[in-house]
Amino acid sequence: FDRRNKLNFLIDTGSEISIVPVRDNANSLFRSTKSKLVTLNDTEIECFGHVNCGVFHWRFKIANVRLPILGVDFLEHNGCVIDLCNRRVK
To answer: Mind telling me which Gene3D superfamilies this protein's record contains (predicted)?
Structure first.
């Protein structure tokens, strides 16, 4: 949960990158890029750019996704440990 932006994030260790929905950045200044993301089942997701946001100042891709995603890039960089027994990330 990002208290500053009031967003709940999906933690996805299968995602190489971290992503935020385009709707949450409609009024933000973000750097436009044209690229596509490809899901595990080969579905393409249009990517609109990237934005730095949150306490950690991480660079998130902006795409047509329903939930913000914390990917392996963010988790590794910040030394996150997923504690499944207590349902939290340290």
So the answer is: Acid Proteases
Q: How many angstroms separate the CA atoms of 67 and 64, rounded?
A: 9
10-89 CATH: 2.40.70.10
pLDDT digits (tens, 9 = 90+) for 35-89: 788 888 998 888 887 877 666 678 888 888 889 999 999 999 999 999 999 988 8
For 39-81, give the DSSP string.
-TTS-EEEEEEEEEETTTTEEEEEES-SS-EE-HHHHHHTT--
- Answer for the pair 34, 20: CB distance below 8 angstroms, yes or no: no
* Spatial CA neighbour of 60 closest among 20, 1, 11: 20
State the CB neighbour count (10 A cutoff) for residue 21.
17
